[in-house]
Design brief:
Elements lengths: L5 E3 L5 E7 L4 E7 L4 E4 L5 H8 L6 E3 L11 H8 L2 E5 L3 H5 L17 E3 L4 E4 L2 E7 L8 E5 L12 E5 L2 E2 L2 E2 L9 H11 L7 E4 L5 E2 H5 L2 H4 L9
Parallel strand pairs: 4-5, 5-6, 6-7, 11-14
Antiparallel strand pairs: 1-2, 2-3, 3-4, 8-9, 9-10, 10-11, 12-13, 14-15
């Protein structure tokens, strides 16, 4: 059965995604016409390569080190030569992975670029801001893009949230290195984003900051109004 490639309309950048692997991970392919990257290559490198088509893959970005987000990482890097980008905190666990009891252990893979909070990742003309969001893992990150740095000036801003923020929920904090207290601080940080930001989570449905303001953020006791 052929894996469906979904397209997301109305954003400030071109976004497609596949749902891959035993835990149904969202694998994003993001491009502005001058640069292309993949987020969290969970599984099935052949499927990802087919979805890329003739596009050159410039980078592979990992939101965190868990195996259900890195299963095809080494194969994709070897096939494309794309640079691998991850947080400085989670990078050692990508280069020397260990089992978590939820999926097979991923092949070790070098991390070419280690990023920290506030860093800017430039791919093509895109400038993605790194937001540290520990809680699910110590080095979990989100990536934020405003229309000024996309290829659709009238499109909506984008947050790649990994397993930090989902539609109606947050990522688990009971894995090694997880922390509910850190997750609360991370959610508080994301609650400062504008309502119109579209959230691309690591699993399940896409959402918006507006929608989560009265669901997830409210559960954490955060103010219902945006700090735009």
């Amino acid at each position: 059965m052929e894996t469906e490639l979904f397209e997301v309309d109305g954003l400030c950048v071109d976004v497609q995604y596949l749902v891959l692997g035993p835990l149904f991970t969202n694998v994003y392919i993001i491009s502005d016409g001058t640069g292309t990257f993949v987020v969290d290559p969970a599984d099935s490198p052949d499927v990802i390569m087919q979805a890329l088509g003739d596009r050159k893959l410039d980078a592979i970005i990992l939101t965190h080190y868990h195996n259900d987000h890195t299963g095809a990482l080494r194969a994709l890097r070897d096939r494309t030569g794309a640079r691998v980008i991850a947080s400085a905190i989670d990078a050692p666990s990508i280069e020397d992975p260990s089992p978590l009891g939820i999926t097979m252990v991923s092949d070790p893979c070098p991390v070419d670029e280690r990023v920290e909070n506030g860093d800017i990742i430039t791919i093509g003309s895109m400038e993605w801001k790194v937001v540290n969001t520990p809680g699910h893992t110590p080095g979990s990150i989100c990536l934020y893009l405003i229309p000024q740095f996309g290829n659709h000036a009238d499109g909506r801003p984008v947050l790649i949230s990994g397993d930090t923020l989902f539609a109606g929920n947050v990522g688990r904090t009971d894995f090694p290195g997880g922390s509910l207290l850190e997750m609360r601080d991370s959610i508080k940080r994301l609650a400062r984003l504008p309502d119109d930001v579209v959230v691309l989570p690591g699993h399940e449905d896409l959402t918006t900051i507006r929608a989560e303001r009265r669901r997830v953020f409210a559960l954490f006791g955060l103010e219902p109004e945006s700090e735009n």
